[in-house]
Amino acid sequence: MKRDYALVFRGHRFCYEVQAVAKLFFPGERFLLCEDGTVPDCDYILTEIRDGSILRVRLHLQGKEMEREHISRNEQEYALCRMLFDMLVTMTGYQPPWGMLTGIRPVRKLVQAVDRGMTMEEAVADLRERYLVSEEKLHLARQCALVQMPMLPHSPKEIGVYVSIPFCPTRCSYCSFVSHSMETAARLIPAYVEKLVDEIRVTGEIIREYGLRVHSLYVGGGTPTAIPAKALQCVLAALSQEMDLSGCREYTVEAGRPDTIDREKLAVIRDAGVSRISVNPQTLQDSVLQAIGRRHTAQQAIEAFCLAREMGFDDINMDLIAGLPTDTYEGFADTLARVMSLCPDSITVHTLTVKRAAALYQKAYHENTAIAEVERMTALSASALPVHGYQPYYLYRQKNTLGNLENVGYAKSGKENLYNILIMDETQTILGVGCAASTKVVCPDGDITRIMNYKFPYEYIDRFVQMMEKKQELRKRLADMETRYAEK
Questions:
Q1: How far, rounded to the nearest angstrom, does the alpha carbon of residue 243 sit from its chain's CA centroid?
Q2: pTM of this prediction?
């Protein structure tokens, strides 16, 4: 049932932080924001700071009321949010597994704490005490941090490169990425590939100009294998010609959708020197595949994986999603077992994120059934995958994820995806190429400059000249990075 909730703010500017905490308990809601302090005629959460030190929270929700006050002159943002969190736990009976953490990189908090001189045990204790993270999630984050830390030190000259091919055969019902179905965007592919190759050439010039070394290369989307084999070959050839990949530790192409994978495209990828691919079924339940708008069967996914193995790929990832529409715990368990029987080198378990279908999310939250199912699914993954030799190595969280849960990459030893680790750690410069790609230039003090490419393929094509002007900004940022590293 749809409800209206309001957030009322008085005497402070912590509106974003308060809203983030409220969404942990009401994830599908679009809150009415009352920044003038006016209390509306609906359910509301009021947060107030008066006289410089008196913090007050009042809840009027679903026929229940609760109010508390606290005196604090320090860390008022945290104190106010902690009050609200504790009161919502009491009123709703729901304890978010990640506690008060609302950021997408919980592992980074552990790594940063260790970098500041804490032991891992002290860093874990800080997350437990300050953010009220559950023991299960603390254990998961700790495991990932211990795997990642030996891989994180690197030279500032080592960079990652991300290449975007934003096309898919169809758009999945849950998708929030900037991707375009072949049915509507196929006519854009030739022009897009031509411009993409041009940007690869310019980016290669910049890499040489600043003496950078490509550490990892990731071709994603969309689904890169959605475009014709010759177009894909053109892109991969440009990468080999314009960038020195001799020192590249990892080269990934997200093959993704099984219905785009064939022998010809796999040969193109293999012959380009790609070391890692993904074959992503998301589920091996045919009825669920139909429900999410995929036009392939579970058997096709299995056949695509087996074909890739036959053709010599020895580092293959498979993606699964917990909480897909119409899926059940039993269905997910069957999918997980069948995927593990194929012995891929890594398995990434995502939790369904619903960005626009708020009604689905609200129904799931208020009935408490879908969330309970999803929690069982992710718990099964966390227990079953390590038994079969897969250890968690990276995780991240997204807004509007069912149950406030997470996405976790599990891998066999030595098969961890370096690019995934580094993009979550945000300590390495990554150059983005293609539609909607993001460049991040990381300076020694942790300062990050982001430069975004145009979001849509037609915009990328039509405004390519203007977009190339942004490369001058990239050059300035790289020069600044060099200077600051030299002064460090």
A1: 27
A2: 0.91
